[in-house]
UniProtKB/TrEMBL annotation:
The keyword Cell inner membrane applies. This is Flagellar motor stator protein MotA. It is a multi-pass membrane protein. Pfam families: MotA_ExbB, MotA_N. One of its GO terms (biological process) is bacterial-type flagellum-dependent swarming motility. The chain crosses the membrane at residues 7-26, 32-48, 198-220. Belongs to the MotA family.
Length: 286
């Protein structure tokens, strides 16, 4: 929603200011200039990226126009779910969660939190490390190192769309100049026409530079920044799980372990201690 609002503000400011200054908006409507700039940028995008990067960018692009799913409610559910898992381990032993880990979709713990169960990457991450804890052959330092490597891999993969969109935005001003030069060439070859028509051709040529810069800094460039922010949000949930599981491995009680995880969260999504305690009590009563 905010992306659309931002685009409306950009267009209203630029085109509205131009119109208020006495400019004719019709002069800025140059579909052929857009074709040259957009087509060249898209072609360069395909040349500069492999299929994996293109698919990752295409998958990430629609999410930029949606709100964040990483809300306080989601993290309350995550911490409550981790508390349920760790409490079961503490009461009944590590082997008690074997069935939950092997088939989370049939687990009485995981199915209590459907909004988390739908995130298959997160559930796999949790189950994989619970499975390693079940094996009993790895200490906390080894599991922490493995977690760090997996989170880093996730983060690096998430940076692919960020870099692709940023490079696309960086190239737009140059392609705007290309379109402008093509317009100048067309103007020079039409040098014999009346001055009024010649001025119109020059104006059309300059629109190419304008469009390239506007698209780069008003539309595409901000998307790369937004994509990076969403990536950092998506990484935080794995870091929270990591801290909770490591605290449990180091012998802390479930209540203390989830408090470790709560402290990792950004302040905007971090529930208070009382909020988390009340949420866990509500889930127990279900």
């Amino acid at each position: 929603m905010f992306v659309i609002i931002g685009y409306i503000v950009v267009c209203a400011s630029v085109f509205g200011g131009f119109a208020m200054a006495g400019g004719h908006l019709a002069a800025l409507f140059q579909p052929l200039e857009l074709l040259m700039i957009g087509g060249a940028a898209l072609g360069a995008f395909f040349v500069g990226n492999d299929m994996k990067s293109i698919k990752a960018t295409a998958a990430a692009f629609p999410t930029l126009f949606k709100g964040s799913k990483f809300t306080k409610k989601l993290y309350l559910d995550l911490l409550a779910m981790m508390f349920d898992i760790l409490t079961k381990i503490r009461k009944d032993g590590m082997m008690a969660i074997e069935k939950d880990v092997e088939d989370p979709e049939q687990s009485t713990i995981f199915t209590k939190y459907p909004n988390l169960l739908h995130d298959h990457h997160l559930i796999d991450f949790i189950c994989d490390y619970l499975r390693l804890m079940l094996s009993g052959n790895m200490d906390a330092f080894q599991i922490e190192n493995l977690m760090d490597n997996e989170i880093e891999t996730h983060h690096n993969e998430g940076h692919v769309p960020v870099h692709c969109i940023a490079r696309l935005g960086d190239g737009l001003p140059a392609f705007g100049i290309v379109a402008a030069v093509m317009g100048v060439v067309h103007t020079m070859e039409s040098i014999g026409i009346p001055p009024s028509e010649l001025g119109l051709l020059i104006a059309h040529a300059l629109v190419g530079t304008f469009l390239g810069i506007l698209l780069a800094y008003g539309f595409v460039g901000p998307l790369s920044s937004l994509c990076e922010q969403k990536l950092n949000e998506s990484t935080k949930i794995y870091q929270t799980v990591k801290v909770v599981l490591l605290a449990s491995l180091n012998g802390y009680a479930p209540t203390i372990a989830i408090e470790f995880g709560r402290k990792v969260l950004y302040s905007t999504e971090r529930p208070s201690f009382i909020e988390l305690e009340d949420h866990i009590k509500q889930n127990k009563s279900r």
